[in-house]
Write a structure and sequence with these properties.
This protein is an alpha/beta fold and about 325 residues long. The chain has 2 domains: about 210 residues, Formyl transferase, N-terminal domain (Rossmann fold, 3-Layer(aba) Sandwich), CATH 3.40.50; about 100 residues, Methionyl-tRNA Fmet Formyltransferase, Chain A, domain 2. About 30% of the residues lie in helices and about 30% in strands. It has 8 helices and 18 strands. It has a 7-stranded mixed sheet, with helices on both faces. Strand 12 and strand 13 form a beta hairpin. Helix 1 packs parallel to helix 6. The longest helix is centred in the middle third of the chain and has 24 residues. The N and C termini lie far apart (about 60 Å).
């Protein structure tokens, strides 16, 4: 079976590597254009492109595949590459481009998407983050037959994973990426023998997982401790939950909820080797790993050696 692969980040690279290891022929990889990254803002290839170049697989990076869109020449070149690949199926994982109907209809078996959610619970760009932020007890991977809608296609395979109460997006991402890679191999093996059984998504329980914005990083200490704690875990590694103390920006990477009421939200109540205890709108949070702007993540004891925090100070109060 010949497989075109469309994806961009590490989540997608894991699946591509699994397909290759399982013996599927990948004549073409589609991925996002190189982006500036790092302190020098040099153009960097995506994880998927890096893997493809290492393996000698052809790569196309159109900014659009809409033939009537903003980049018609790039879309036309992408169409030529897709047609020339003669693929049986396209596998899509966090690609970042909307696929027009002509793409969906080109491969014999259509386009299969690896979606990191139990559809239709979280459709959209950030299902891993939003599942943790919402306090979901479980998530999973859905292999979906793509259609013209946004994550609305029929479900082909579904597997579930529990979300622990200490789970971060970084850790859950890695578990879901490994699961997605295994499942897409299984899905293509079933597709080869006509063994896939499409199931329409339920009409109920649809939520949209909006893209994570940097503005969401600011901690609102008036919220309940449980809510803030989930956001700390959901925004690890990006954008990182943060607060201010005067003019100093402090990122919070570990926050454990505790009981306790009756003080100003954001006020520091205790500072010791167990962490920094902060009052919230409901309950309290014990902060265990902190980071100053331009610094490294540090356990609280190490952080306090370079930047002492005082009982009674109020976090979230800018200078």
């Amino acid at each position: 079976m010949r497989v075109i692969f469309a994806g961009t980040p590490e989540f997608a690279r894991v699946a591509l590597e699994q397909l290759h290891a399982a013996g599927f022929e990948v004549p073409l990889v589609l991925t996002q254009p190189d982006r500036p990254a790092g302190r020098g803002l040099k153009l960097q290839p995506s994880p998927v492109k890096q893997w493809a170049l290492e393996q000698g697989v052809a790569v196309a990076q159109p900014r659009s595949l809409r033939l009537d869109g903003k980049y018609p020449d790039e879309a036309a070149a992408g169409r030529e590459a897709i047609l020339a690949a003669g693929a049986d199926v396209m596998v899509v994982a966090a690609y970042g481009l909307i696929l027009p109907k002509w793409v969906l209809d080109t491969p014999r078996l259509g386009c299969l998407n690896i979606h990191a959610s139990l559809l239709p619970r979280w459709r959209g760009a950030a299902p891993i983050h939003r599942a943790i932020e919402a306090g979901d007890a479980e998530t999973g991977v859905t292999i979906m037959q793509m259609d013209a809608g946004l994550d609305t296609g029929d479900m082909l395979l579904v597997e579930r994973l529990p979300i622990t109460d200490t789970e971060t997006t970084a850790g859950l991402h890695d578990r879901l990426a490994a699961l997605g890679g295994r499942m897409i191999v299984e899905a293509l093996e079933l597709a080869a023998c006509g063994g896939l059984r499409p199931v329409p998504q339920p009409a109920e329980g649809v939520n949209y997982a909006h893209k994570i914005e940097k503005a969401e990083a600011a901690i609102d200490w008036a919220l309940p401790a449980e809510v803030i704690g989930r956001r700390v875990r959901a925004f690890d590694p990006f954008p990182g939950a943060q607060t201010v103390l005067g003019a100093e920006v402090i990122k919070v990477w570990s926050a454990t909820p505790e009981a306790g009421e009756g003080d100003t939200p954001g006020r520091i109540l205790e500072v010791d080797e167990r962490g920094v205890l902060v009052q919230c709108g409901g309950g309290r949070l014990r902060l265990g790993v902190l980071q100053r702007a331009g610094g490294k993540r540090l356990p609280v004891a190490d952080f306090l050696r370079g930047f002492p925090l005082q009982v009674g100070a109020v976090l979230g109060a800018a200078a």
